[in-house]
Amino acid sequence: MNLQRIKIGFALTGSHCTIATVIQQIGKLIAAGAQVTPVVSPTVERENTRFGRAEEVMEKLATLTGNKPIRSIVEAEHVGPGKLFDLLIVAPCTGNTLAKLANGITDTAVLMAVKAHLRNQRPVLLAIATNDGLGLNAKNIGVLLATRHIYLVPFGQDDPSEKPNSLVARMEFILPAAVEALQGKQIQPLLMAYKRD
After folding, report:
1. What integer is the mean pLDDT of 33-62?
2. CA distance 130 to 93
3. Could you give phi then psi for residue 53, rounded to 5 degrees?
């Protein structure tokens, strides 16, 4: 898949257990020729967890992409008027981010980047990771599925027996889903059995 000269904003939110996998997918986009600029939520920028230190994640993103991550609402406002990206990917996209996006709330750099990018009627690709995707956030997923210029990476239940409401995108489909979204298409099938590593 050729993404030569395609400019991608890659926004990460606080599903810390999926960030390492998502960073691998950024590498695949770059290998396909894309120019990637990271955008991070405050949680990704500041919170240390058992999955890694925030400072290390920020360094990895800057080193891998060659671009300093967009961290603030003020920086993200330039995404729209500057027409900075051909495609904006939000991965992982938490339930909190899903809910705010579906309800027009813009209080982080990631949400501002999405709002600013959508004003140019350009595609946004969401890779969800939420423990309540089949609970309180089900309605927000429905709203976003029906929203023009928003596409989703195929997803499924990652642990139906222990977490029956949890949905996680199959992150390995970010690249092919991005190619489809750039053509104004939703990759299919959207609902998939979740494959554990």
Report:
1. 96
2. 8
3. -90, 140
Mean pLDDT of 176-187: 98
What is the dihedral angle through the alpha carbons of 195, 45, 9, 64, rounded to the nearest 10 degrees? -80
Q: Are strands 167-169 and 124-130 parallel, antiparallel or unpaired?
A: antiparallel
pTM of the model: 0.96
Cα gap 49→45, rounded to integer Å: 12
Q: Is the pLDDT of residue 147 over 70?
A: yes
From the list 46, 195, 2, the residue with the least C-alpha distance to 12 is 46
Side chain identity at 38, as an amino acid letter? P
Please state the domain extents for the chain.
7-182
CATH number of 7-182: 3.40.50.1950
3-state secondary structure the chain: CCCCCCEEEEEECCCHHHHHHHHHHHHHHHHCCCEEEEEECHHHHHCCECCECHHHHHHHHHHHHCCCCECCHHHHHHHCCCCCCCEEEEEEECHHHHHHHHCCCCCCHHHHHHHHHHCCCCCEEEEEEECCCCCCCHHHHHHHHCCCCEEECCEECCCCCCCCCCEEECHHHHHHHHHHHHCCCCCCCCECCCCCC
